[in-house]
Amino acid sequence: MSSQCDSKDKKDNENQCEQQNLQLLKLTAETDPILHSPIEEMRLEDIRSPETKQIVANMIYSIRAKQLERANAPFTKAAGMAANQWGINKRIFLFCPKGNDGEAKVVFNPTYKPISPNQVSTDPTKTKSEDQFTNLYREACFSVPQAYGIVERYTNIAISYVDINGVQHTDEQLSGWKARVWQHETDHLDGVLYSNRQSGIKYGPNCTEFHRFQTKSEFDESYPK
Ligand SMILES: [Zn+2]
């Protein structure tokens, strides 16, 4: 998912990257079948395997703004990215709702379910908008170039996943923007693009408005600042 968040550029240590044999991953095309069918749950031994560790290292390397630019990605700011967007058939995504040049959390086997606002733990920072069951906001996606949409998402969700150490987490809560990014990335691993759903949130994300442009400059001019 692309991000509107500003993030500071961090200098990449190219020499270090070469020593670790990091590979710049290329984004797959919107029509690639890997983006349109669900990715299977990973077994714990697969999550802990050296092969997966190398894939995760390549993903963390490739989501940085500088590397996205090198890979000719449609955007350089990311809030998250799912493995299948790079053509990788693994149920993994990177989660960085604050921007892609800070820490990116590695998430395996994610799921989510909506929770109603009155089930949300008491949080003094909760805003009034988080009292709604769903909310509308703009989204853009690395797999849907030169386009954006207004997408209805659940405001509060309960998430489950396995972390980088192979530890299972269950029923943690997310709200607002973080919940939106989580839903967008999990939907990728379920074979769903935000732009494919215009049938009501009961059936997945509900894209209520969709705008696609012919060129990147047209998109840049039209994308609300
Ligand atoms: Zn996306």
Describe what this molecule looks like in 3D:
By secondary structure, the chain is an alpha+beta fold. It has one domain: Peptide Deformylase (Alpha-Beta Complex), CATH 3.90.45.10. The chain is built from 6 helices and 8 strands; from the N terminus they run ααααβββββββαβα. The chain has helices at 14-19, 44-47, 50-62, 65-70, 176-189, 216-222; strands spanning 80-82, 92-95, 105-114, 134-141, 144-154, 156-162, 168-175, 206-212. A 5-stranded antiparallel β-sheet has the order 1-2-3-6-7. Strands 4-5-8 form a 3-stranded antiparallel β-sheet. A hairpin with a 2-residue loop joins strand 4 (134-141) and strand 5 (144-154). The longest helix is centred in the C-terminal third of the chain and has 14 residues, at 176-189. It is globular, with a radius of gyration of 17 Å. The two termini are 17 Å apart. Residues 5-15 have low confidence and may be disordered. Zinc ion (ZN) binds at residues 1, 141-143, 184, 188. Zinc ion (ZN) binds next to helix 5.
CATH homologous superfamily caption: Peptide deformylase
* Number of alpha- plus pi-helical segments: 6
What is the class in the CATH system? Alpha Beta
Kindly give the count of domains: 1
Structural classification: alpha+beta
Mean pLDDT: 88
Instruction: Kindly estimate the percentage of residues that lie in beta strands according to DSSP.
Output: 25-35%
Shape: globular
For this structure, the CATH topology is Peptide Deformylase
User: What about the largest sheet?
Assistant: 5 strands, antiparallel
- Give the beta-strand count: 8
- Helix-strand pattern: HHHHEEEEEEEHEH
CATH architecture: Alpha-Beta Complex
Q: Radius of gyration over alpha carbons? A: 17 Å
* Neighbour order of strands in the largest sheet: 1-2-3-6-7
Alpha-carbon distance between the two ends: 17 Å
What compounds sit in this structure? zinc ion
Helix content: 10-25%
